[in-house]
What does this fold into?
Amino acid sequence: MALARSRRDRGVDYWPGFVDALSTLILGIIFLLTVFVTVQFFLSQEVAGKDTALSRLNAQIAQLTDLLALEKTGNLDMVEQLARLRASLSSAEGERDRLRGAAEGSGASAATAQSRLSEAANVLAAEKQLTARALSQVEILNQQIGAMRRQLAALEDALDVSERRGRESQARISDLGQRLNVALAQRVQELSRYRSDFFGKLRELLSNRADIRVVGDRFVFQSEVLFDTGQAVLNPAGRTELDKLATALLELERTIPQEIAWVLRVDGHTDVRPIASAQFPSNWALSSARAISVVQYLISKGVSPQRLVAAGFGEFQPLDTATTDDAYRRNRRLELKLTER
It folds into this structure.
């Protein structure tokens, strides 16, 4: 109440305007994140579709290449067969001319020569038919090869276009990723600012006690402030100090926008000396129970459970590795850290 009265005495309260500006900034960041997620989804779908089409085109190119090789092999066979047929035709024509000369030179063997000449003519006609058929097949094969080459060229053009679009999509995804990193960095800086304000508020409420201090990014309570030796039940003095902490946390919950996923992590630590009681069989159990007791008390004071985390570290995260009473006292502690969920 004294703090609120001092604020009224100072005159104009700029805090609502600051909250409005901060809310507008958060809404802008949410809008950018929404646009990024939407664009990334559609780009991922497009890239996946292009990859599928590219794989299909590569498979078709491989099939066409194999077919083209087979057609070339068949073409060579037909050319060789045509050459053989032409050789046979030339041989038949030579035989026909020889027989015709023999028939003209010898009237006695004219009938025999004429018969053999007829046979040669029939063979020649058959060879010509085979030759014509072979030439027709060669022409058809040449046309098929030409069509395959045109189709292959079209597929190569389509592949080039797909690869170019893929590179453009990757460039856009990279740009959106950079924007997202900038937005996340701004969120981290914003949480760091709230952490600094929160620790400052705690210093004011806890009156700069020597057994309650800031170490790095953590607020440290010595265990003796909150608990009796070997116990996990809050003592009256500890409840008083946690009441102040709960007040600061409730004010923090009202201050930080809901979009920032922050939590207060309560870490319990013990010294290295073992404990083996019926209630706490190990330092793990004691440190965890103390952290849970703090969290449950803060919840009873109205702090949202979604904003609290309890963890026990036992004796395995000491601040001082010495074996003196002072080192043991420093290591028996509870640390509060404002962090992201």
In short: The chain has a mean pLDDT of 80. Residues 110-206 form the longest helix (97 residues). The first strand starts at residue 212 and ends at 215. Helices lie at 2-9, 15-105, 110-206, 223-226, 236-255, 283-300, 325-331.
